[in-house]
Write a structure and sequence with these properties.
alpha+beta; 6-stranded mixed beta sheet; 3-stranded antiparallel beta sheet; about 45% helix; about 15% strand; binds protoporphyrin IX containing FE
Length: about 425
């Protein structure tokens, strides 16, 4: 790729070059947001030059990211929609791994026809029929909190298994397989965090090992659901048709993987990080207790504030212009969602956590346009259901230690949230 021909991009100070792709930079989100806020105010885009990566422009402002997302005929996703060192892709395919073909990797007609296979399952009315089940599962985890007797790691003990259980029930994955799904997802998304990667494994090995295990697992699921379809998402994917034919093997495999991986770590980080924000701003928790009807807005604010998907990449299909820069075809930009979600041009007092904010609908945490998060309505329901129950039933709740963020540059957030609490 050749870089933008326009003069206004800034080249980052060497200490900031890893700001978007170095997993370690995402461990301290307060520092990260401070540094990026300065960049966002002073520059519309920054150019990243790192010897391990082809250069890319990082878009930091809400309006510019909005524009690229909206203009999908010009800006394509491609198989390299998530940022990794250039050598990573060649090695990944060299290890015999299948070329990524999940929804996020597809463009245009191919994307449209594949998305249609599961789209109806994720519409607002369709998610409504799961509300009673989500309530039951949330009650189960509130009970677990009661059983833990006054203290727990909310991220590990509650947010993670709760969000995993909801998506796995919708999927039709039995409870005994949940730990495997969690391990494989963390292998795909969290491979750079030593806590989630296996001993001595690097990011590539961890992702490849997870994909191999997913292939084995979902081949069996396909056989099972073709023989005896059920009312679950696995049956929809196993029997899904595109233009009159069953989805081909590669697309089907990646369909399973994206739906199995995209739905729980993301939602878990939004829930745990959202509760962290409420505990760090206790007056906000008081507001929620006094006005429980604010829970829908509060959940949205948690999703804006945490923005657990840290980026998507887009590639110019033709010569294009963005943020005042003329970009030749083939150029790539990084859509930095956490930065867009703290942009003062889109949110009043953007750096403040405020569950009453009237402008929260501007959030870009779920992306926009044809790739808008398929599971957004489930994620919203899960978060507001749990927050509503906690606000109603807890007498006291406070931080009981220092929260920790995961070390990953694509999907990350609060991985440990020690709390102490008392129920009414
Ligand atoms: C708070 C939780 C979540 C966040 C922040 C989130 C964020 C995102 C983002 C940013 C995208 C890309 C959008 C774009 O490129 O414009 C995406 C796509 C996607 N998400 Fe989510 N997501 C969440 C929960 C879920 C859940 C619960 C599911 C359920 C399975 C899910 C499934 C998907 C799928 C399948 C795609 C690909 C859609 C496509 O490319 O057409 N996500 N999500």
């Amino acid at each position: 790729m050749s870089a933008s021909r326009h003069a206004q991009t800034i080249q980052l100070d060497p200490s900031d070059v890893g700001l978007f792709h170095d997993p370690a930079e995402w461990e301290d989100m307060v520092a990260w947001h401070d540094r990026v806020a300065t960049l966002r105010r002073e520059h519309r885009v920054v150019r990243i030059d790192d010897p391990d990566y082809e250069p890319y422009l990082a878009l930091l402002r809400h309006a510019d990211i909005f524009e690229v997302e909206r203009n999908h005929d010009v800006w394509h996703n491609t198989t390299r929609v998530t940022l990794a060192p250039d050598s990573f892709y060649e090695q990944f395919l060299g290890m015999g791994m299948p070329e990524p073909k999940s929804l996020v990797h597809l463009d245009g007609h191919d994307h449209r026809v594949h998305r249609q296979v599961a789209n109806d399952w994720f519409k607002p009315a369709a998610t409504q029929r799961w509300q009673a089940r989500i309530d039951d599962i949330a009650d189960e985890f509130v009970q677990r909190m009661r059983d833990l007797d006054g203290s727990c790691d909310f991220a590990v003990d509650i947010a993670q298994p709760y969000t995993l259980r909801v998506i796995m029930e919708i999927y039709g994955v039995p409870r005994e397989d949940e730990p495997l799904m969690l391990e494989l997802t963390q292998g795909v998304f969290g491979g750079s965090d030593p806590e989630f990667a296996g001993e001595g494994e690097d990011m590539l090995m961890s992702a490849a090992a997870s994909v191999f295990k997913f292939i084995q697992y979902f081949n069996e699921v396909t056989e099972d659901r073709r023989a005896a379809p059920r009312d679950d998402l696995a049956s929809i994917i196993a029997n899904g048709e595109v233009e009159g034919h069953l989805i081909d093997d590669e697309h089907r495999l990646w369909y399973y993987i994206i739906v199995a991986t995209a739905g729980h770590d993301t939602t878990s980080f939004a829930l745990a990080g959202g509760l962290q924000a409420l505990l760090e701003n206790p007056e906000q928790l008081d507001v929620l207790r006094q006005q429980p009807e604010l829970v829908v807005n509060a959940a949205e604010e948690c999703i804006r504030w945490t923005s657990p998907v840290r980026h998507m990449m887009r590639y110019a299909a033709v010569d294009a212009e963005v943020a005042g820069h003329v970009m030749p075809a083939g150029s790539r930009v990084l859509l930095c969602y956490p930065s867009a979600n703290r942009d003062d041009a889109a949110f009043e007092r953007a750096m403040e956590f405020d569950i009453t904010r009237p402008d929260v609908a501007n959030l870009l945490s779920f992306g926009l346009g044809p790739h808008f998060c398929l599971g957004a309505h489930f994620a919203r329901r899960e978060i507001r259901t749990m927050l509503g129950k906690l606000a109603a039933q807890l007498d006291t709740i406070e931080l009981a230690g220092t929260p920790e963020s995961s070390r990953a540059h694509f999907v990350s957030g609060t991985k440990h949230l020690p709390i102490s609490y008392r129920f009414r």
